[in-house]
Amino acid sequence: MKKNHLESHDLYRERVNSQLDLFLSSLVSTNFTNNQLKEIIKYSALARGKRFRPILTYTVANLFDVRLEKVDSCACAIELIHIYSLIHDDLPSMDDDDVRHNQPSSHKVFGEAQAILAGDGLQALAFGIICNDPLIHSSMKIKLLSLLSASSYSMAEGQSIDLSIVSHNVDLEILNNMHKKKTGALLNCAIKFGALLNDHISDKDLSILSFFSSQIGLAYQVQDDVLDVTTSDKILGKRQNSDSSKNKPSYPSIIGIDESIKIFESLYDNAIDELSQLSVDAEPLRLITKKLMSRSY
Amino acid sequence: MKKNHLESHDLYRERVNSQLDLFLSSLVSTNFTNNQLKEIIKYSALARGKRFRPILTYTVANLFDVRLEKVDSCACAIELIHIYSLIHDDLPSMDDDDVRHNQPSSHKVFGEAQAILAGDGLQALAFGIICNDPLIHSSMKIKLLSLLSASSYSMAEGQSIDLSIVSHNVDLEILNNMHKKKTGALLNCAIKFGALLNDHISDKDLSILSFFSSQIGLAYQVQDDVLDVTTSDKILGKRQNSDSSKNKPSYPSIIGIDESIKIFESLYDNAIDELSQLSVDAEPLRLITKKLMSRSY
After folding, report:
1. Chain B interface includes A231 (CB < 8 A)
2. Which structural domain, as residue segments, surrounds residue A231?
3. DSSP label of A87
């Protein structure tokens, strides 16, 4: 059973990889060889990320008996938004990261302007792929797109807060709020997408999934801050200690590493407890949560 | 009659201004004073632009008997996308413009990172405002959002081409294609939005409006290139001669000013001719076209 669930993560990752490849290949190429946009988008999108968010979407959808073909556009949309956010976050004026997924960041290869535009184009494509999915009816699409829009806006707001608190003394409440927007909103969207694809999903299940996502979202960030201090560059695929070297406030910088570890473990525990109230057997989500809890990068 | 039509442009401009103000004021403020995003968005969005695209949307919608309340979200969405594109186009890594609408560009006031994020947030909001409009039914919303996504993607592609041809010798075909994507796509979207809001719009009318928009879109750009050489900074609200000083290929640089004037006048004439085939009296669109044709900035 457990083995099957973990194998399905690999299947979902392969599935979203091939769906992204298919979708991006279908974009009409212009006749003009000097148009780099599609090339940059493919460079960034087909780098081997963890595909954590679409895996969650497929996993939740599967719990609620949604067939996988119906999940593909949502899984891709979530990942397209995530990829756009990474390209923009890596820019010199933002986090100034030269390496992403063990390859040079988009702006290092294609220049800042083209990287900004690739992110812009990716955001537009994310909305389009759901609009054009023939397997989802219109009123469901609107629910999905409305959530995607709100989540994408929150993400930009969160990154704006993140940059504005560099070199400032902030408390945990501000840090929590920033992460809730910067990464929590899109994670929540990924999880709810899987549930909203079932026409008969209950408000209770949606609310449980929201709480679950808020707990693992925050846990993941606190854990990221800890791993940022304790793990080597090569394993992370990005520069180690990058937050503290940029004077970004982090959980370890405010409350220390030991306390940070306690907090993220307790958030993961809350998340697992909440799952027992779902109307379906949530074992696959429990396993994902446990896997996250024990991740070393 | 003519006076009424031109007065209605002012009414539409006022209407989209107040709708944008209303919408942006309704965005939830966070408790954290260091979140600048809403402030930057309002700074950029409420600067007094021409509101040319939403005026077209209202005008076309009115031709096809769509009541104005039903047009507001589309008019705002179009303008939000346009505003985001101006913020990103003005960035140092792109066109590097310090002034927009006679005020400092967003990145000059708030910094590059926050300006990029404001553009990102605006794009997300554009999709959201249509999703959440209670006056439009879901299947119509999906048509509108699908067109908005394709147009917004084309716009990013066009700007990518524009930057890639700086200091290159290009022919008119490449220049036309670039403008078709960079500004034509969103103009087409603005015009079609007004028609698509009528459930019974015919394919023939849509196709006539598409041709009309392609002609005035290109005419506007050729004319912009001409005005860029011949008009003073203060009137344009941006630096004069900015394209040639950046070594951007332009119509005057390829075929000279006189030939460029002939071309844009002939494109406007084509546009006006096409309108006579519409199933409704298109006098308001003819007047807009004539007004554009004779603009001096």
Report:
1. no
2. 2-293
3. H
Name beta bridge partners: A103: A100
- Looking at residue A204, its pLDDT comes to 98
Min distance A5 CA to chain B CA atoms (Å): 34
Q: Identify all chain B residues contacting A168, using CB atoms and an 8 Å cutoff.
A: 34
Q: Best interface-test mutation with A: which of B93, B186, B199 has the largest number of A CBs within 10 A?
A: B93
Alpha-carbon distance A168 to nearest alpha carbon in chain B (angstroms)? 10
- Cβ of B45 under 8 Å from any chain A Cβ? no
**Dihedrals phi, psi of A100, to nearest 5 degrees:** -145, 130
Count of beta carbons in the 10 Å neighbourhood of residue B3: 7
Q: Which residue has the tokens 């101006």?
A: B86
HSE-up (13 A, CA, CB side) for residue A228: 20
pLDDT for residue A33 is more than 50:
no
Partner A contacted by B119 (CB < 8 A): yes
pLDDT band at A245 (very low <50, low <70, confident <90, very high): low
ipTM: 0.93
Contacts of A177 in chain B (CB under 8 A): 30-32
**R_g over Cα of chain B:** 19
Mean pLDDT of the A193-197 span: 98
For residue B67, report the phi and psi dihedrals to the nearest 5 degrees: -75, 150
Cβ neighbours of B149 in A, within 8 Å: 124-125, 127-128, 131
User: CB within 8 A of B2, min separation 6: which ones?
Assistant: B287
Asked if B218 contacts B184 with a C-beta cutoff of 8 angstroms, the reply is yes
| Contacts of B131 by beta carbon, 8 Å cutoff, 6+ apart | A142, A145, A146, A149, B141, B145
* φ, ψ (nearest 5 deg) of residue B104: -60, 140
Q: Which of A28, A35, A82, A180 to mutate to test the interface with B (most CBs of B within 10 A)?
A: A35
d(CA B29, CA A32): 44
Q: Is A167 left (phi over 0), alpha (psi -120 to 50) or beta?
A: left
Cβ contact B130:B141 at 8 Å: yes
CATH number, domain containing residue B181:
1.10.600.10
End-to-end CA gap in chain B: 25
Q: Which ranges of chain B have pLDDT less than 50?
A: 1, 33, 240-241
Q: How far apart are CA A46 and CA A58, in angstroms?
A: 19
Mean pLDDT lowest among A199-203, A275-279, B253-257: B253-257
Q: Residue A143: helix, strand or coil by DSSP?
A: helix
Asked if B22 and B35 count as a contact pair (C-beta separation under 8 A), the reply is: no
Alpha-carbon dihedral of residues B21, B24, B26, B32, nearest 10 degrees? -130
Number of folded domains in chain B? 1
What tokens were used for A101? 């997924």
